[in-house]
Amino acid sequence: MAEFMNIFDSDAFSMVSMTTAIQKRPYVPDYLGTLGIFERTPIRSLDAAVVMTDEGEITLVPTTPRGAPPYEQITKVQNIRSFRTPRIAIGDTIYAHELQGIISRAAIANGSMEMVLADLQTEMAYRLDGPNKLRSKQEATKEHMRLGAISGIVLDADGSTLYNWPTLFGVSLPVEIDFDLDNATPVMGALLTKVTELHRDILRAAKAGNNPAIRVVALCGDAFYDALIQHAEIRVTYLNWQAAADLRGARPFGTFVFGGIEWINFRGTDDESTIAINTDKVKFIPIGVPGLFQEILAPAETFDFINTPGLPLYVMVIRDKDRNQWVRMETYAYPMYLCSRPEVLFSGRRT
Questions:
Q1: Residue ranges of E strands in the chain
Q2: pLDDT in tens, 15-61
Q3: pTM of the model
Q4: Same domain, 247 and 178
Q5: Domain residues for 332?
């Protein structure tokens, strides 16, 4: 059996081969990741350079007499800052005794390196992609960072701040909106007026021109969503619609459109805290604004990937060359989740 362990020295288990293979497998499902709002931007360095400038300003050009010099365009000085990309690294060690019964007796009896390779690759794929395994932990960590990016502040797993984008960019987040959803006698039309005003404010802050493809999504905590679908104005609006059946059924983690905004009951982790939106809150995301949200990917910290564009995930296999007792898989990712205009990150509360 010992000679079969030499298979880990083959190219099939090199960092380049393993990383190439894992890129072909589907990602663990995640809402913000699959929403498609984060533009993937691979870089070849450890730091990401961000250009901060006043964009989208409308300037009236003064008239000039014929024959006079034209109005001279003034280009503002760009403020360039660099931010170090973080590292997400997770490992899993496979011990020799754990391969008992996994590597088939037929492979050993026949001396078939191909069969051994297939058995080992199956086990390693399970360690990477099985429930609560390496890839799912990587993706959960990234989803936590994405949620931070749409909130303005990206946190580490221990609650410390990785990036406070409003502070770093010298802007303030919009004031949280009170939707007054606990009002027992709401004025009919007041909620729609508030939502319409909010919609305008988001589009203006996004500075995306008249692009009709831009839409706004509202990610709601449970209590906010429940109060919203019970609101009298929502009920009246949907009274004669086929979609009213969904509201009457109070389907959990549902979605509906009101005031031109798509309202979604956000589903985070089942513990309602690791990845979650506060039950009484709502966060608004403009979708379709170029460059607003970015996933910046830095390359791995090994010789194999020096000066190469960053990838979503890297896999390394490390062998116990002294005692031949274990093989270790390690996954690495170097993503930075950025909101380039934190002033568009509107939010609200139930009451």
A1: 38-42, 47-52, 79-84, 88-95, 153-155, 161-164, 177-178, 215-220, 255-258, 261-265, 281-287, 293-297, 314-319, 326-333, 335-339, 347-349
A2: 676 677 666 554 444 789 888 899 999 999 999 987 765 554 555 66
A3: 0.83
A4: yes
A5: 2-54+78-144+297-339
